Amino acid sequence: MTKEHEFKTWLEQGGAQTEAGRNSRAYAIRTIERNLSALGMPHRDLDEAWEADRFEALRERLRKIREDARTGGQDYRILMPDSDNPHNRLSNWGSWLGQYGRFLAGDPPGAAKDADRIRQYVLEHYIEPAREEGREHVDVLVRDVNEALGLKEAWPNICQALAGRIFQDMAQLPEPERIGADQSSATVFRFKLDETVQSDGSRPFVLFDATGAPFQPVKNYNRSSGVSAFRIKPRGAGNKADEAIETEDIVDVARAMLVDGLASRVKAIAGGPVNYLTYGGDKLVRYELSPEIAQAIGVPPRGGVNGTSSADDGRATDAKIQKGFTPMNLILYGPPGTGKTFTTAAEAVRLCGEPVPADRAELMAVYQRLLADGRIEFVTFHQSMSYEEFVEGLRPDTPGVESQELDADELDAAGFRLKIEDGIFKRICERARLDPGEGSGDRRLDRTRPIFKVALGRRFQEEEQIKRALDANEIRHGWSGKIDWSDERFEDWAEIKTELERRTGKEISGHAGELVCTFSFRSDMQVGDYVVISDGRDRMRAFGTIASDYFFEADAEHHPHRRRVEWLWRDDQGTERARFYPNGFRQHTVYKLNGALVEWDGLEQVVFGVDRSIPAEGARPHVLIIDEINRANISKVFGELITLLEPDKRLRAENEIRLTLAYSKRLFGVPSNLHILGTMNTADRSIALLDTALRRRFTFREMMPDASILKDAGQKCGIDLPRLLATINERIEYLYDREHQIGHAYFTACSSQADVDEVMRHKVIPLLAEYFFEDWAKIAAVLGDLEPGEGSITGGFLKRTVLNPPPGLEDGDAVARFRWQVRSVDEGFDYSKLVGT
């Protein structure tokens, strides 16, 4: 357990007042880590177990050991070989493991928060002693807690802290019974200690096999496991097999859970997909069942009950349910050089669902692959960062007239326009929202491809002509008559214009229909581009993909200019153009639509009949990394979208919100499969000064210098680098504050004293000069070179010489002045005084 000291400090800051209590927790964590292999865990240490599944498997194992101990089993001796009361001790150890997980996750200890102090005090002085004594319940009087902590009549705060789900999860307890007056000094909370509780604060569902031995539900349980019957433990029954109800059908199990509310979540396979049952207290708040079980017990396969909202449209009513995604908004903060930027790479890989390699080179290879796949984006904030750059804004654009992308009235006199351009945040949000998932088979349109509008004939008047082209899987037009444009030179717009002028004997305008349509059809259109067949100005009747280059049909009576098309959608009755494009179709036979105006979600709804405005069920997680997030004006950069970052406001979440973007005027939401990771250098700005809107919506994980990391590097260099860094940082904290310390990353690559000299000369000393505003006396104090008196100094890093006063100031009017210098390269540095050798 390499972080024992930090864990104890975290506990103390969070309200663990007694040293004995802190030592007990540390001992439990050490013991669990030492016995991971014996517990059946494949991890080398708890850090690796946390990275794998946030201790889910480990805490499940502790729960099984506890249940085994209830029935006289001996598994508990793996951890407690001499214990006479393992059951309650295991309950404490489970809650302590949860605390260690919060510590590893970077949750703030909350020393300044009364709520955290209250929870920690009650856990340490009431819950844990009562468990050790084997009591069935414990009562907590609000007045006693208030007096013990020296609070000022904080009755409502105490009641709220003890009744909330945070404390239930922390202490592994069910919801308490409230006795007496509400939110007063006389309020009593009665906590029942004889019920095992899951990590999410809910009770487990206990099943028994035909032999009477209890077992816990498992992720891949089915009848092929050899169990001939299930026995359901009714509410209030004991843990004896003869008090259970026997059944041979998993459907009965599901029905019992739905009716009695005995479980929090059970995953089982019964000839169908995985089933989810999610409870809050004793009430089922959301469920998802395989079709077989849903039909058998007579309920919809998805939905909410007991007064909660329905989910018949397939959306989860809880943001945390949607394919296991819990959007993370996390900021890593600390002094420079503590590895924040590198840590985000590992965190991003983990959040993308990929294994995190221990080797740095392998980790970066995975990171770069995800970056190339578009599942990770990286951006660095700066002082001039704006909403227009981050979300969307207007950019000047000067398209060539021959491209005909715009209506004539969209061009101003200077021949340019302001084009809406997406920023990095909008791009990755859209990429995450539209992600189909691995092997989903979902058909999608390529939103980077242009769409050409083509008219095959006049509506009603040339219906047979239109249908013949559609049936032949072709698009056709007759502009420029019998001229064959197949020659390669006609790829160029100017060549087409020249040929038309030669054939007609007159000058051709750049806006002439025969030139514009011919160029669009012959040269601008490419294989793989999309084509929409208009049906008048306001309707469309087909949509497809260009499947061939231009070809000339010399024998055709009409419309010899042709391309083959693969139709993705066709409806001779047509549909409204406005479903995907706001502007009416122009009369040009062929032209390219303005891509900025295409509503792709609406188009896919027409073509595939699928609503793409929300993420697919199997959408993979994406990560946006924002380096130096505190350097920008957050309100200016995020604008109105700051609200959408909250997990419950995401797309598919319970309180989903969509806002209209300022420039494109389109509805926009943040998908629930997008994680946001930020880094923050506290030497630039204290976390206390960060935008409050951002602080409310992000979790903050502190990353401080860790001198112990430098042990191996110090042996290579012949310098006690851990002591050197620890000494420097202790003095900086004394003279300045803890947020301006020096990070260990500055020294990790050092392999010789010359390397350390380079770091000190070009990194550390200049950084100290910046911190202390060129106050060299303080810099010398940090480096151990300051001496009393006003004489010259030759220190290990700095030299001080006395400056002579100008003539006329020798008689006592002069103030002592000094010249400070860094020792030269030839002189080198002396580390003996700084590291105490």
Automatic annotation (TrEMBL):
Keywords: Endonuclease, Hydrolase, Nuclease. It comes from the Bacteria. Residues 326-708 form the AAA+ ATPase domain. The keyword Nuclease applies. Pfam families: AAA_5 (PF07728). SMART domains: AAA. The keyword Nuclease applies. GO terms for molecular function: ATP binding; ATP hydrolysis activity; endonuclease activity. SUPFAM superfamilies: P-loop containing nucleoside triphosphate hydrolases. This is GTPase subunit of restriction endonuclease. It comes from Rubellimicrobium thermophilum DSM 16684. The lineage of its organism: Bacteria, Pseudomonadati, Pseudomonadota, Alphaproteobacteria, Rhodobacterales.
